[in-house]
Each structure stands twice: as structure tokens, then as C-alpha cells.
Automatic annotation (TrEMBL):
Protein name stated in the entry: Phosphatase
Region ranges (Disordered): 655-680
Pfam families reported in the protein's UniProt record: PhoX
Annotated InterPro entries: PhoX, TAT_signal
Length: 694
């Protein structure tokens, strides 16, 4: 390890990430997932079906005046596990975890929805780019030249489409940023890009190098909340991780047959990470980065062995087409051709741990955390010190997961702590409503008990090398986690994105971004709207507020959309005062426990933005828009620094709108004039040094 001391200054606040998207976004980010059939064709019951099936039992139990318990028993009975105990309703103060501590204290005037090609911040604030696509990361990197790109240069420069951002302070005026580079958009990166067989090999290689992540050293500007890239000196921590960086597997599935390929007969090493979306940090100061829509990079699944095809399909990989499409990474690296290397796809879709303080360290794919379209992973500690990682699988009708380590975190014992994510239990969530199914009518109207809420269970899938799923080995559960979760009755959700624990209240907040495919017959209390274009936010309150618990209560504090739409809900707050919000994606918290939400794919016609909402106290539900990003962009990050004087946001895919190209850019952000748009991390701060939002 290069230098352990800055690591101790880490905040334990972790921060990590759709509707109205452009055709370019759909193609390049997720391989047009929405145009394909839903990958989850399992018979696994919709939760509405579950509620209906247990209603008669619930009626009997209600005679004992324990409605919430009844819901728990119903769900537990179906999963064959112990009954869940009753949890209190999520009223402010009822949990004994937050009470009225929510300080609110947010005093800025909300930014109005708009379509401006700039980053709009409230009065009294300023913003500036910190690091842009193509900026030199390694000290010997050439300056960015849009017209003369090379793969060699890109591998040393800041990658494309920045998503997850986290900040590691080193003293009060220096720090490191880690940033995920989710995907490349070749149609905006190259003039005259023709794609497929017509793409040049150099373009394909630039695409590979534009993926991954970056570590960059930044410095405070003056005494302000502004930060800028350090552009001089050694920059010892600066690093590029790409789709070709050597990585290794650890955990129960490492070395197993399912991970072995011709290039890696050991099943323990792999080149690169792909489509890294959101992420989190660990208590020991490393980054967790989620490989999301990895499926789109693989071609010719039609030629994979028949026995492999069901699992490939379950992960959204086409097994019928005999014509390769997409970025055609297979033209420069044969491993992306599944007819030749069918196991290569098994080697993506993991949580990757990266040490930002050791640029020579090998990133690790932690197999104990399962294989999904990982949005990200955020950590907290159970009451007994075990490490807990919350994770969403971002596709329509997919599930929510958590990992609980076997052993406890020991502050300062780095060697021990770095083994914690290799052994533990992986769970999947089941959400049960407490209102009669007839009251969840798809209108968005709250049921008669006043809330979309209920109880839930974490259903164990695998513990170490022991599978809890009949018919599947532990390695199979970890490599084909979706198939395992299908078998145990997990709840199909409206695209689970970021999920993170509130450091003040202990509540766990989950963004469910949207799901236009949910039908009226498929609504349930946790996903109560059909054709859900605007998404919602769900809070999990773990039993005894212990992240290690296996049962929980939940409710929907936020049902997104235009507040004038009766099918929206802002935790009961006066809807005439709140900002419209659509497609919540990333969530983060400031030190006061306020919930920050960034959006992706605003289906209300505005640019995407960053919002903040108190979650306790008198202003609970008072959601306000703090900033908007330029045309075509989504808002990622966000990261509020521990001193709360700066907020970093990743401005991903500016200008990515239908019909845009380098010949006709839709955005000129951040460089202005007639420049090409460049995905960038930006910072916003108050001109008088006030706390963000105050
Ligand atoms: Fe890459 Fe789930 O957003
Ligand atoms: Ca996301
Ligand atoms: Ca209810």
C-alpha cells in the first residue's frame, strides 16, 4: 500500500446512481435493453400475487390485531423461513433511529425545470468543471485533441461518461477523486462514426480505453468550495483503470469452472471492467464499483453451447442473432465472441474493489457479492461490526440484494478487513405490502392506511461455499445470481438503482428509477404504478435498525412525477411547495442526513438534476431541485464533501440527444462556443463558503 495515512481521513459517508432517454443513450449505455424482452421471465410471483394468496391467512391473523405481523408471516411462510416480527409503521420518530433529528435547514431557492445547455445552480452558488473527458490523468498523457484521438492517449486520459464519484480528502486542501467511466458513445466521440464492421480498429480500441475508472488528484481553489485538477508534479496516485486492466477474482466462485476460459484456465484473472455505473466506498478506504450492463459487449451468444444459453438470456445476452452488432470489441479481442469463449461473459457483472491509494494494486472482482447488472454497492456496519453491502440489480423486474460479511470489521487492521468481502451471506429482498391488494389499484392513490408500506425479508441465497438454493451449487448461485433469486420468491422491482444507508437515521434508501413495462396486473404495494415512467424511492428500516437484520419494515417516502399529478407523493409534505422529479437514480446523504437524489431520464421534459429532501422533522418530504445539468446529460455522483462546502456531480453524456453528432453537437458543455460536449465531473459551492443547501 502506498500511503495508509490519508485513508484514515476518509469520511464514512459513502456516496455513490431512467424514462425520457435518447436513442443514443439507449444504444450505447445498455444495448437497447428496453427494446428487448424483459430478461426476467421467471415464474417468480409478483408481489401482488403473493399478497392475494396470503389474504385469507392475513384475515385470520388480523383477528389478533397484528396486521404487519400477518404480512410478515405470509411472506415468510412462502419462503419457508422463520416468521418476520412486526415492525413499526414508518412515522417520523417511530423508529427510535432518527426521531426529529432531521435538521432540514435547507434554505436555497429551488432551481426551476429548464432546458438550458449549462449547469444551473441556485442563487448564491457557482459551479465549474473539475475534470473533463480527455484531460490528462497520467503525468505523461498528451493534451486532449478531439480530432486526433488515439487509444494510447485515451488510456492515459480521463475516460468517457463519468458516473460514480467519490472523494477521498488528504488534508483540507488536497484530495483524490475516484470516478467510474460507465460507457463510451462512439457516435459522439468520432466524426462520421459508422459502427459495426465500418468502425476502425483504433476507434474500437479507444472505446475499450474510455471505459473503467480514474483516480485524479485535485486541489482546493483558494479557500473556497471549488476544486480543480492538479496538473503539475508527480501526481503519484493518478491512475486509469480500463477494459483491459488486469484484475483478479476472489471469493467462493474464484477458480471455479464457470470462470475459466482459454486465456485464463485458472478462473482467477480477468482483463478489465465494463459499464461501471454507481459504487460506494468501504470503511477501510477502498472503492466498490458496479459492473452494470455488461451484456451488450458480447456477441454471437447464438454460438454458445446450448446448455449455457438460458443463463446468458437471463443476463440479457442475445442467443439468437448470428450477426454481431454493437461496438464490436470482438474485432480486436476475440474474448468478446461467445461462440468461441462462452465463459467470458461470466467474468463481468461483478462488484470490483479498487484501492485508490495504491496505483499499482490489482483491482479485485469480489464474487461473494454475486453477479448482476450491478448498479453499485454501498457499505455500512451491522451492530456487531460485520460489513454490510447493499446492492441493486438495475433492470426491469430485477431484485435488491445485500451481502453481510461473516467476520467483523476491525478498525486499523487492514489485512483482515480486506478479506471481509470474500466470505459472508448474500441475501435477496422480498417486500410484502400491508394493505389489501384491492387498494393497490394502480392509480397511485394511497391505500386506506395512508401509506405504501409493509414488511420484508432478506432471503439467504448462499453463505460462503454453502448454497441455500435447491439445485444450485454455491458457485452457481454467485455466477448466476439472478437465476438463484428467481427460485426463492424475491420481489420484482421497478429497476433497483442506487441503495444507500442514511448515516444519521439508519434508514436504507433505494431508488427505483422507472419501469414502463409493469402492467396494471403486475402492480404491488412496493411498485404501485403501472407504466411507471417517473419512478419512486423506497426506505427500508432494518429490524432494530441493525443492518445485519434479516427482516425489515419499508415504505415509499417519494412517488415521483409532477407534484400536480395525484399519483405522486412527497412523504406527506405540501405538494405545492416541492420540485417536480422524475427517474431517481443515485442517492447520497450529507452529514445532516438529508437525502440527495440525482436523476437520469427526466420524463417531464426538463434537463436532469440533483435534488435534496429532508427525511425527518417538519420538512420531511420538502424536495427541492438544487441543480440541473446541460442538454442530453444525466446527473451522476453526487458526492457531498464531509465539510459540506462542496458537492461533486458527474455530468454524464452531455449532448446525447437524438440526431446529435460531432457535425451537429446538441451541447457545447463544458467548453462553450462551438466545442464538442465532454462528459465531466463538476463541483458546485456557495460563493460565501456556506454549507451546501443552507
Ligand atoms: Fe447505469 Fe443503473 O444506471
Ligand atoms: Ca445509475
Ligand atoms: Ca399500506
Amino acid at each position: 500500500m502506498a500511503n495508509p495515512s490519508p485513508r484514515r481521513m476518509l469520511p464514512l459517508l459513502t456516496s455513490p446512481h431512467k424514462g425520457g432517454r435518447s436513442a443514443l443513450t439507449c444504444e450505447f449505455r445498455c444495448g437497447n435493453a428496453c427494446a428487448h424482452e424483459v430478461a426476467n421471465a421467471s415464474e417468480n410471483a409478483y408481489f401482488g400475487d403473493v399478497v392475494t394468496s396470503v389474504l385469507s391467512r392475513r384475515g385470520m391473523l388480523r383477528a389478533g390485531a397484528l396486521g404487519a405481523l400477518a404480512a410478515g408471516v405470509g411472506a415468510a411462510g412462502l419462503a419457508g423461513a422463520a416468521p418476520a416480527a412486526a415492525e413499526p409503521k414508518p412515522e417520523a420518530g417511530a423508529f427510535g433511529h432518527g426521531g426529529d433529528r432531521g435538521r432540514g435547514g435547507l434554505r436555497f431557492a429551488a432551481v426551476a425545470p429548464n432546458r438550458e445547455d449549462r449547469l444551473v445552480v441556485p442563487e448564491g452558488y457557482q459551479s465549474a468543471p473539475v475534470v473533463r473527458w480527455g484531460d490528462p490523468v497520467l503525468p505523461d498523457a498528451p493534451a486532449f485533441d478531439f480530432e486526433n484521438q488515439t487509444a494510447e492517449a485515451q488510456a492515459k486520459q480521463f475516460g468517457y461518461n463519468c458516473d460514480f464519484v467519490t472523494f477521498f480528502p488528504m488534508g483540507s486542501n488536497r484530495g483524490l477523486l475516484w470516478v467510474n467511466h460507465e460507457y463510451s458513445d462512439e457516435a459522439l466521440m468520432f466524426r462520421g462514426y459508422a459502427g459495426g464492421n465500418a468502425a476502425t480498429e483504433e476507434q474500437i480500441k479507444i472505446g475499450l480505453a474510455a471505459h473503467g475508472g480514474s483516480v485524479v488528484e485535485i486541489e482546493r481553489v483558494g479557500g473556497s468550495g471549488q476544486w480543480r485538477l492538479v496538473t503539475r508534479g508527480r501526481r503519484r496516485y493518478n491512475r486509469r483503470v480500463t477494459a483491459q486492466t488486469p484484475m483478479r477474482f476472489t471469493g467462493p466462485a474464484a477458480g471455479g469452472d464457470l470462470l475459466k476460459t482459454a486465456a485464463d484456465p485458472s478462473g482467477t484473472t480477468v482483463l478489465g471492467m465494463l459499464n461501471n455505473c454507481a459504487g460506494g466506498t468501504t470503511p477501510w478506504g477502498t472503492v466498490l464499483s458496479g459492473e452494470e450492463n455488461f451484456n451488450q459487449y458480447f456477441v454471437l451468444g447464438s454460438g454458445a453451447p446450448e446448455a449455457d444459453k438460458a443463463a446468458l438470456r437471463r443476463y440479457g445476452i442475445d442467443t439468437t442473432s448470428t450477426t454481431p452488432s454493437g461496438r464490436r470489441f470482438d474485432r480486436v479481442e476475440e474474448r468478446f465472441d461467445l461462440s468461441k469463449h462462452p465463459h467470458e461473459a461470466n467474468r463481468f457483472g461483478w462488484i470490483v474493489e479498487i484501492d485508490p491509494f495504491d496505483p499499482d494494486s490489482t483491482p479485485i472482482k469480489r464474487t461473494a457479492l454475486g453477479r448482476l447488472a450491478h448498479e453499485g454497492a454501498t457499505t455500512t456496519l451491522a451492530k456487531d461490526g460485520r460489513v454490510v453491502a447493499y446492492m441493486g440489480d438495475d433492470s426491469r423486474f430485477e431484485y435488491v440484494y445485500k451481502f453481510v460479511s461473516k467476520k467483523r470489521y476491525i478498525p486499523g487492521y487492514d489485512r483482515h478487513n480486506r478479506t471481509l468481502l470474500d466470505e459472508g451471506t448474500l441475501y435477496v429482498a422480498k417486500f410484502t405490502g400491508d394493505s389489501p391488494a384491492a387498494e393497490i389499484d394502480g392509480s397511485g392513490k394511497l391505500p386506506s392506511d395512508g401509506q405504501f408500506d409493509g414488511s420484508g425479508q432478506w432471503i439467504p441465497l448462499v453463505t460462503g461455499n454453502v448454497s441455500h438454493v435447491p439445485g444450485m451449487t454455491a458457485a452457481e448461485v454467485l455466477v448466476f445470481t439472478r437465476l438463484a433469486a428467481d427460485k426463492v420468491g424475491a420481489t420484482k422491482m421497478d429497476r433497483p438503482e442506487d441503495i444507500e444507508r442514511n448515516p444519521v437515521t439508519g434508514g436504507v434508501y433505494l431508488a427505483l428509477t422507472n419501469n414502463s413495462n409493469r402492467t396494471a396486473a403486475q402492480v404491488d404495494e412496493a411498485n404501485p404504478r403501472p407504466s411507471n415512467r417517473h419512478g419512486h424511492v423506497l426506505e427500508i428500516v432494518e429490524r432494530r435498525n441493525d443492518a445485519g437484520a434479516t427482516t425489515f419494515a419499508w415504505w415509499l417516502p417519494l412517488v415521483c412525477g409532477d407534484p400536480n399529478d395525484p399519483a405522486t407523493y412527497f412523504a406527506g409534505f405540501d405538494k405545492t411547495k416541492v420540485s417536480p422529479i422524475s427517474c431517481p437514480d443515485n442517492v447520497a446523504f450529507d452529514r445532516d442526513g438529508n437525502l440527495w437524489i440525482s436523476t437520469d431520464g427526466n420524463a417531464l421534459g426538463s434537463n436532469d438534476g440533483l435534488f435534496v429532501m429532508p427525511v425527518t422533522g417538519r420538512e420531511r418530504g420538502y424536495l427541492r431541485q438544487f441543480l440541473t445539468v446541460p442538454i442530453g446529460a444525466e446527473t451522476c455522483g453526487p458526492m457531498i464533501t464531509q465539510d459540506q462546502r462542496s458537492v461533486f456531480v458527474a455530468v454524464q453524456h452531455p449532448g446525447e440527444v437524438n440526431g446529435a453528432s460531432p457535425e451537429a453537437p446538441a451541447s457545447h458543455w463544458p467548453d462553450g462556443g462551438t466545442s464538442q460536449p465532454r462528459p465531466s465531473v463538476a463541483v458546485a459551492w456557495h460563493t460565501q463558503g456556506r454549507k451546501i443547501g443552507s
